[in-house]
Specification:
Elements lengths: L15 E6 L4 E6 L7 H9 L7 E5 L5 H9 L4 E6 L2 H13 L6 E5 L14 E6 L15 H7 L6 H11 E12 L3 H10 L2 E10 L9 E8 L6 E2 L3 E2 L10 H8 L1
Length: 254
């Protein structure tokens, strides 16, 4: 059964804020009340390491922050971002132009479940994805459409994002996902099913001393061999309720 629309009300009017990274050199406009990017997107963007001249695809781009970070850090790459929600797709396109990336940053509005109608197969060197984390029937669904679709699997599940990644990435190309550590098995199973072999995995912890990882970053290679590398833990905060670690601060500051 399809998810019901917002209950008997009009779509909210979102005010926008200008948020910066890299000491003000990158500006990302986003909704104050709707979906806002978090450390997850910043981590994924830095974990992805494109080769010179690469064609990059960002699946489910939101306001476009992953593609913006990659375009800023790698001036010779081109980025294509796919977003289902019209307002977010428009915002992502405007963010690209505002940062001077108009000639190598484009946004498509469309559904990852219909990827074959939107993009040609095996046309990207690298695919990056920060998919919705929560199952449709788990937790409270945000009343704001933007936030709800970004956080819950209302329109597509992790398997759909993996399938789209496998369709779009070239043979021996790479895909990068960030996902909750507690649901890591679902991600890894979907990757293997689509011949995307995990090569680098990095557990992300909230702060030192926590018992279990909060997130996991995974880089997979299409039709890769079985060897993989598990990297050292990455800590977001110095301690509980503390400031960002120097390593996390560096990702924002460049």
């Amino acid at each position: 059964m399809a998810e019901p629309p917002l209950p008997e009300r009009q779509q909210p009017l979102h005010t926008l804020t200008d948020d910066t990274l890299f000491q003000g050199n990158l500006i990302c406009q986003q909704s104050r009340e709707g979906y806002r990017f978090s450390v997850d997107a910043v981590l994924a963007a830095h974990f992805a390491v494109p080769k010179p001249g690469s064609q990059i695809l960002d699946l489910g781009c939101g306001c476009g922050v992953i593609g913006l970070i990659l375009a800023h850090r790698y001036p010779d790459i081109t980025v294509c971002s796919l977003e289902l929600q019209e307002k977010l797709a428009t915002l992502a396109q405007e963010n690209g132009a505002r940062n001077g990336f108009a000639d190598r940053f484009r946004v498509l509005r469309g559904d990852v479940c219909a990827i074959a109608t939107l993009l040609p197969p095996e046309s990207f060197d690298l695919v990056v994805c920060n998919p919705p984390y929560r199952k449709k029937d788990s937790g409270r669904i945000n009343l704001d459409d933007q936030a709800a679709c970004a956080r819950h699997e209302l329109s597509a599940a992790v398997g759909d994002f993996v399938r789209a990644s496998a369709f779009c990435v070239k043979n021996r190309g790479r895909v990068v996902f960030i996902y909750p550590a507690g649901r890591c098995n679902a991600l890894l199973a979907a990757l293997q099913q689509h011949r995307l072999v995990p090569k680098r995995l990095q557990p992300i912890y909230s702060y030192p001393g926590t018992a279990s990882a909060r997130l996991v970053l995974v880089e997979a290679l299409k039709n890769g061999g079985e060897q993989s590398e598990i990297l050292a833990p990455f800590y977001i905060f110095e301690r509980k309720n503390g400031a960002f670690t120097p390593a996390m601060q560096a990702l924002y500051r460049g």
